[in-house]
């Protein structure tokens, strides 16, 4: 689907990169649907002159790289809402690589014109310890002291070492994952890894790499074969790298770009001195409610956010969850009433099939960030049931045999076999939970009453108790 082969009606929709591919100045780790609907989309809209090309590397599977490469980097962003559909063909993704191709990554980061590295590797992809610092033991078990370097942090460290040895200039690292203070988190992880395996690199990072914190938001479900067929029927071409997303898109950034950046603000991005308040609003209100749905609505037969939210009982639970979160977000600048109304409209958008099983991946890490962080803002004797429901729903699912992809599966399996599995599973998420008066007993009761596939009374009450 390169520019020369596009038919006239398609070429009319392509940005300036159809005729002149931009030079690679951004390298991305984590080539998935969200990256294509968000960072590449923002860059294409902000850079009509085609000066900021992106080279992206996959995470665990090379499939996305093959799909994009077969189309010379062009793909369609389909925005769906109740008002209809909008299509944009994007050409700023000028190269796509298998994430295991470390030499390609090193060659790119040796180039002085490369100014930015962005990342979308999910919460679990950084392999952080519970304190948010580098977990070297987990990296060792993943093979990250071996040549293959399987994690994003290890691969980034390798690429930066190549840049250091080449005498390359400073650049910015911009994580775009749902992690609080993600810039500082990635800095700690990267420097921790470098100190372990390459002390000279750790010192170079301190003087040559800035870390930008971000808040990102755009619901982007996995593309299906039906989506590909529908696009072919509508516009007359097949696009196996297409993405389907909602009209809403948000990007808030704070930090320095020592080698420059696109004018993302021209595409609607927000630059601030501190992303904290916007981060908490998004992680706790939107992502937290998503995890609530993923852990509690599937047992009622719901498969997507929209179908679950259309269920009056489920929607009431979401509204109660938002009430509980709003109580610990007092900043009037966040405009929570309007934000909640916008969230409700987005959740109700039936044109976007945001699957709950997709959201349910890596739930242990997500609960830590999206729910436990809110509980920590509550008085210990006044934690609402609404905040305990995601924990109870997840535990009920685990004890009923449901297994979603999770980097912490081994710990989850061990906890599920414990004498008091509820307390043990809570401790997997955050061991501080079992010290909050009444939480273990209340979660146990919620698991008993709110998990239809488990018979009432099936959860053992540990005689020692954690109430």
UniProtKB/TrEMBL annotation:
Q: What is one process in the GO biological process aspect for this record?
A: mannitol metabolic process
**Could you tell me the EC number(s) of this protein?**
1.1.1.17
Q: Which PROSITE patterns match?
A: MANNITOL_DHGENASE
Q: Which residues form a coiled coil?
A: none
Q: Which GO terms describe its molecular function?
A: mannitol-1-phosphate 5-dehydrogenase activity
Q: Which domain of life is it from?
A: Bacteria
**What protein is this chain from?**
Mannitol-1-phosphate 5-dehydrogenase
Supply the source organism for this entry: Microbacterium testaceum
